[in-house]
Amino acid sequence: MSSLIGLLRRRVTTHRWPPARVYLAETTALMLGLALLSRAFTYNVAGLDWDESLYIVIAQRWLHGELPYTGVWDQHPMGLPAIFAVAIWFIGNGLLAARIACLLAVTATAILLTRFLTRTRNEMLAGSLAGVFYILYMARPDGLAANTEMFNNLLVAAASLLLWSELSRRPPRLRTGIMFAAGLLFGIGLQIKYVVFPEAVLLCCTALWLAWRNGAGLARITLLAGVAMAGGLLPTGVATLYFWQAGALQSYLDASLRANVAYLEAPLTIGYMLARLRFGLLPLIALLPWPFVLAWRLRDSTIRRRYGGLALWLAVWLVATMLDVASPLKFWKHYFNAMIPPLCAMAGLSVMRLAERVRAAHGLRVPALALAVLAPAFLLMIKHAADSRSLGRLDIPRAIAQQIRRGGSDGRDIYLFNYDPLVYAYAGAVPPTRYVLGIELANFHTSSGAQSSREIDRILARPPRWIVVADPSPYHFAPPIRQMLDAALQRYKVVAQYREADYIQPPITVRLYQIRASDPETG
């Protein structure tokens, strides 16, 4: 054994690895280790985002044969639940599977950001900084849940890297295979969330424009555009054929078209919009100046000659993500995560350019600037440590599911009126309605198309053995619905009560109700 170890050691120490390969291996190890360390205490913390819980329930029911849209309704494409379904099939635990998938997506995006700067201008330290910035900004509470932005950031970063790597060649070229691959990545992103469309259009059009300026003829540009569109439409075509073959085409089209149009039409007051912009942009305050710093440094002709094209590409990418954030006209906090990849790339590049001008001890320039960039992310991690990354925090959805199991359930007698859908996943229950997320029967009943009063009356008339209610309600239900619920709860008793506080909403009291044994309809 000792001789074998000695042989391996000699092979490793004497082999001359290419510097680029060594750097890639080191970067991968650094990003994975940093992501594991910064997210390790979140893998069992429920309640970070109820959208994540909805996707987990969709995936779980899909594995049990219930098609999305017909079994569990959502207006988003089913790309993310499909990813979760694969992860759950391997891992079992829905929440853990989603968080591990998210960890891998965040790590891969950080690695792509490092490659973005090292492949174009051999900026190894700038690339490493960009990756570290991304990992740690995604470790904020808004980046811990396995939401759509985490996965689309990976796809968009990969497509952006493919296109820019082609355009930064000497001489520049844009091959049809690369254009198809980039379009395909954007198309997969569209099947995770439709708001990737601005990134797809702006980045592909910029690539085609730069190719035209570099001498590509009109016929060549037309061919490349057609190839990109073919790749972009392919995933949507596959999804449409799948739901058509499964007999759910009408539900799929209703959710994809009518529901999203109605969602865009839902009013958002100026006050709410300004408040959400503040909550979305304030955590990124230390990233936002770096595009302007980079523009300032580009006044130097030498820097402009070396980095001008890259700065233009990153600027287009950033503008596209801003359109991504704004296009649904709702400005939820997690939407702003789409802006972080180009901001981190710009910050990494700008820190190195600014460090060249800062008069300070050479060894302190870059660390001091990097810490300034990361300060808001660190402060948010510290501020919300108790409700986003605590091993000791009670997992309330799991506790409710365990209480239900102890009290007995047939898996079809649980109703979550306005609470985290993850309870269904933990209990292995079949939801009594396809509108699993309570907001679809409340604030967004117009976009979901739900007949809220009729749907809730049907559920309560059964009646379910268990009902979970959160107060004050995170959603606004019409007064007749609350009266209907209050009347139904006269037949129930409270068997468990929990106080829940998280970083998203004010504290709520979660009550688990069980129907009284004396009720004649329970048998």
Order of helices and strands: HHHHHHHHHHHHHHHHHHEHHHEHEE
| Major β-sheet strand ordering | 1-2-4-3
- How many strands in all? 4
Count of DSSP-assigned helices: 22
Give the distance, in angstroms, between the N- and C-terminal Cα atoms. 70 Å
Name the assembly state: single chain
Q: C-alpha Rg, in Å?
A: 25 Å
Helix content: 55-70%
Q: Which residues form runs of ≥5 with pLDDT under 50?
A: none
Characterization of the model:
This protein is mainly alpha-helical. It has two domains: 2-42 and 75-387, no CATH class; 396-522. Helix content is 63%, strand content 5%. It has 22 helices and four strands. The chain has helices at 2-14, 19-39, 50-63, 79-91, 94-121, 124-137, 148-167, 176-190, 197-213, 218-245, 249-265, 270-281, 290-297, 301-326, 340-355, 362-383, 385-388, 396-407, 422-427, 445-448, 452-461, 479-488, and strands at residues 414-416, 466-471, 492-500, 508-515. Strands 1-2-4-3 form a four-stranded mixed β-sheet, covered by helices on one side. A hairpin with a 7-residue loop joins strand 3 and strand 4. The longest helix has 28 residues, at 94-121. The N and C termini lie far apart (70 Å).
Brief account:
Helices cover 63% and strands 5% of the residues. With 523 residues, it is mostly helical.
Features:
mainly alpha, 4-stranded mixed beta sheet, 22 helices, globular
